[in-house]
């Protein structure tokens, strides 16, 4: 897999100062944890999952989560399990027949309902489990999480590499009278299973639902005080350098292809241009910019139209890349404070080093844009063939 590989080679050369690197489910955990990008959820009952994944209709897809939990009704579970097993075995057969290489697979995850369901699927799938990158575990808590992690580790040891994606969305985490005790206990649990935990995800829809709240289209999740509060605490516990896990942002619920608005993405893009976006996409962009500002990497998505904006915004700006490189080189040379080559900020090697390391790791996965390129250039080149004519490279 490679981010933005669906863009023509000619346009890639005009957009990227540093191209995204190729990765796969077999890449090292330290690299792969940054690579989930826009994780597209799809119900396990949806027709022709295999064909959808490999037909090219989901442009830019790198991560898919097939859901057996909230996306389907209780009455559909058995049918969905049978269908899912058939689809996964079919993909595995393609691999065994040489029609598909494992490194060409999107990162595939199953979102399951219970440890018992996961155990059943492992038994039924057998060696076909190697198609999967991991298991998304909903409503993860200290009360229910240990059996999941133990089973994922067992699959790792006995069948094929497999990761866990704990989703933090339970009452124990958002209710303040239990939050800090729960987060501290989860911190200890995750440390003990670090090698199999690829990423921690935040489930804001469930959090909001516990209070009967749903953000409107003109608000971001950070405008919802009770959810913003718990996101801050999750970052506080799991975003620390000494015990770091990548954290992915919660889903944006709105999608449309009609109404347009002008989205200004100047928030962290020097010289960014203004392009026309739908109202729903404009809200998504605002929220992703806030995700990134708060250190979150990637985002759960529920509609294919969300893939492009979420992933384009993960690409590293030339300015950030140069600052990060300066900081790391300065730290290696035992230097302290360094003036940015942009003459607009100070780069301090000690407090900024961890940020710089994360930027460099993201740059390997999502690439570095040329100085004159913006998020809009990348997004529109990926979605509008005629737009490529406007990408005249400045030497």
TrEMBL record:
One of its GO terms (biological process) is oxaloacetate metabolic process. Its cofactor is Mg(2+). The keyword Metal-binding applies. InterPro entries: C-C_Bond_Lyase-like (IPR039480), Pyrv/PenolPyrv_kinase-like_dom (IPR015813). Keywords: Lyase, Magnesium, Metal-binding. One of its GO terms (molecular function) is lyase activity. It holds the Pfam family C-C_Bond_Lyase. PANTHER family: CITRATE LYASE SUBUNIT BETA, LYASE BETA SUBUNIT, PUTATIVE (AFU_ORTHOLOGUE AFUA_4G13030)-RELATED. This is Citrate lyase beta subunit.
